[in-house]
Amino acid sequence: LGYSMIYSVAETEDKIADALNQIKASGAQCLLFFPHHKGAVFPDRERKDIRLSSLPTLVLESRSAGLNYVTADMERGTSLLADYLYGIGHRRICLATAFSRKVAGFEQAVARWNDPGVQKWILAEEGKTDEDDRDLARRILTLTPRPTAVIAADDHAASILISAFRGAGVPVPGEISVATFDDHPKLSQFSSVPLTVVRHPCREIAQEVACWVHAQFTNAGNRRFRREITGTLIQRESTAAPATQQVQNG
To answer: N or C: which terminus of the chain has fewer CB atoms within 10 Å of its end residue's CB?
Structure first.
């Protein structure tokens, strides 16, 4: 569209107000804001700083009360994965993340099935290192009965879980199916098994952002703008129907 852009990073919350003041002083006419991820919405302090800047603002990848936003519908995306696993026969499913929006989508799917034969677990890694994911894999393998399917936090975490499962002699997807999110462009370089994913709708989000920006420069930007976009389910070799619902810890 030919509009110039200014990029600024506030590494800590106390630097957000200064960054916004610098952006406004530069003559910016609107703001695209990517908040710190701390749950379903971003902190009140960040929201207050944005309002004080008085710039038309679009929040990316987080819902916001009172502000415009574009975000992936993580609840719906997680439900898609859960429904897919349930549909191919899995009745013992572990959600391997505590991210609130994914937990909500998972819980919604399980409630919708209304199936007393379903067993579910919601676990999460202690941190974000590869070793944390390996620890999580070991915890999953000790569950009794063992889950036949796992929904990982993201594609990198999924690749670590798969490596740990296979290293413990548990084939994927032979005994445990693994599904996840994102679909990183270099996924094939770090996952030993092609991953079933809900692809993050990056392109669709970018297109919505461009539409909003254009509206700010054409005097059509006063209407409330809120978009939630569901990613695309892509089935690959990391998932399959469970060999049996009677698989126990090996």
So the answer is: N
What distance, in Å, lies between the first and last C-alpha atoms of the chain? 58
d(CA 195, CA 200): 13
Coil vs helix vs strand at 16 = helix
Q: Tell me how far CA of residue 133 lies from CA of 130, 143, 162, 207, in angstroms.
A: 5, 16, 10, 34
Cα 158 to Cα 140: distance, rounded to the nearest angstrom? 13
Between the CA of residue 23 and those of 16, 31, 56, 250, what are the distances in Å? Answer: 11, 8, 12, 58
CA atoms within 13 A on the CB side of 224: 5
The C-alpha torsion from 201 through 206 and 207 to 211, rounded to 10°, is 140
Rg (CA), the chain: 21
Helices (H), the chain: 16-25, 44-53, 74-87, 100-113, 130-141, 155-167, 187-190, 202-217
Query: DSSP letters of 180-192?
Result: EEE--TTHHHH-S
Question: Tens-of-pLDDT digits for all 250 residues of the chain?
Answer: 888 888 888 877 778 888 888 888 888 989 998 887 654 455 666 777 777 778 899 999 888 778 899 999 999 999 999 999 999 999 999 999 999 999 999 999 999 999 999 999 999 988 889 999 999 999 999 999 999 999 999 999 999 999 999 999 999 999 999 999 999 887 666 778 999 999 999 999 999 999 999 998 887 667 889 999 999 999 999 999 998 654 444 4
